[in-house]
Specification:
The chain is an alpha/beta fold and 488 residues long. The chain has 14 helices and 25 strands. The chain folds into 2 domains: 277 residues, Aldehyde Dehydrogenase, Chain A, domain 1 (3-Layer(aba) Sandwich), CATH 3.40.605; 181 residues, Aldehyde Dehydrogenase, Chain A, domain 2. The model has no long low-confidence stretch (mean pLDDT 96). Homodimer.
Amino acid sequence: MIHGEIHLHVRQYINGRWETSATTGVSANPSDTSEVVAEYARADRRQAEAAIRAATEAFPHWSHSTPQRRADVLDRIGAELLARKDELGLLLAREEGKTLPEAVAEVARAGQIFKFFAGEAIRGGAGGGGGENVASVRAGVQVDVTREPVGVVGLITPWNSPFVIPAWKIAPALAHGNSVVFKPAELVPACGWVLAEIISRAALPAGAFNLVMGSGREVGQALVDSALVDALSFTGSVANGERILQTAAARRAKVQLETGGKNALVVLADADLDRAVDCAVQGAYFSAGQRCTASSRLIVEAAVHDAFVAKLRQRLKGLKIGHALERGIDIGPVADEERLAQNLAWVGIAREEGAEHVWGGEALERATRGHYMSPALFLAKPSHRIAREEVFGPLACVLRADDYDEALALCNDTPFGLCAGICTNSLKHAMHFRRHAVVGMTMVNLPTAGVDFHVPFGGRKGSGYGPREQGRHAAEFYTTVKTGYMLA
C-alpha cells in the first residue's frame, strides 16, 4: 500500500524484470517542496533500446494471444485501479498537485478505461480490431477485411494527467495485441511506476509491456529513432510533437500526436450567466489550468460582457488555493517551480501588451512552501499573445464579440483546434456552433475540460495529428488493415 509521506524508490521495468539505472532523479510534492515523493531510476539510451528489443521479441506471442486472454489482463488492471483509487489518488495529488478529489477521480477514470478496452479486446475479435466480409466484384472470389496489431508501440506521456493519459494509450495498445514501451514524464515517475507495477502483475508475457523513465532527449529520442518501434503516440508540446513527426515519418512509423490547445468558451447574451461562469471557472482554472482542454479564451457577447466579467471576478475572489490534500481546496499548486515562473512571466507579458488586469496572477504563500498562484483573469484583444498562445496554467482572458457571428470567427481564429464550448439557450446557435467550430470536440452549456472515456478524443489543426484517441476509434491507430482475397 502507498500512503502519504512515504518516500518511494522506483525502477525501470524491462523484459519482465525491475532494473536500476546509473543515475537517479527526484520528484517533490508541489504542495510542499520539502517532501520528496520518489527517487527514481533514470534510464539511459541503452536501457531504452533493451526495452524496445524486449517488446519486439514479445510481440509475436502477445499478438497471437486470444481475445479472452487480453480481456482478462486488462480487466484485472482496471479492477485494481478502481479498488485502489483513494490510495493512488493520494499519490497523484502528492506528486502532481491536483486536488485530492480530482486525483481520485482521475485514477477511477483510468480504471474505467482499462475495463472498457477489456471489452474491446473481445468485441475486436482475434484479429485485434474486428473485420468484415465483403462481396467481391468478381464471381467466386471471397474478400475479407481484417485488422491486425501494428507491432511495437512507443508511448510518451505528459505530467498533467499521469494516470489517465497513459491508460488511454496503454489499454488500447494491449487490447489490440501490440507490445508497449511506456515513457512517462519525469515530473511524475511514481505515478508511472505504480501503474507499471500493477500491469506487471497482470499475467502479460515478459516484454509485452515495458517502463522506461528518463529524459525525452535520451529515452524519448531512442523510441523516436528506433527502426523497431512501429508506432509512436505522443502527448505534449507542439514543438516536441513536430520534431517527433518529422523523424518518425522519415522512417515511415505510424504517428499519433496530441499537442494542446487554445480553447474557447463562447458566452452569448441569452445564456444563463451563472451557468456560464461555472463553466468558465471549471474549464479555465480547475486542475490549475493544466489541461489541454482548458478554456483559456472566454469570448463573450457585448450585451453581457460586463456582467459576465463582474460575476467571474467575484467567483475567482472566492476560490480557495492551497495544499492539494487540504479539504475544501478548489485549486492546488502548479506542477513545479519552472511552470510557476512561466505562468508569472505570462502575467507580465499580458500587462506589457496592454491587456486589462481583472484579477489574480500573483505568487501566493501558504503554510507549506509550494508552487501556488492566484487564478489570473485579463480583458484582452485577439492580437494579444495570451489570446493566441497556450499558457497551460491558471490564466484566462476575456474577448468581447459584437454578436454570434463574430464570436464564432474569434473562436476559430487560432492555430489550434482541440475543443470549444458555447453557453446559450438558442438551439439554432448551439447546432450551428457544433457544426462550424473548427475543433475536434464541442461542448454546449458544459465546461470544455471534462470528457467521457468511451468516445473519441482529439483535435484538428495544431492540436493533433493522426487518428483519435479513446473509444472504438482507437483501433484506427493501434491496428493496421489487411485485405484478403480467396477463390471460393
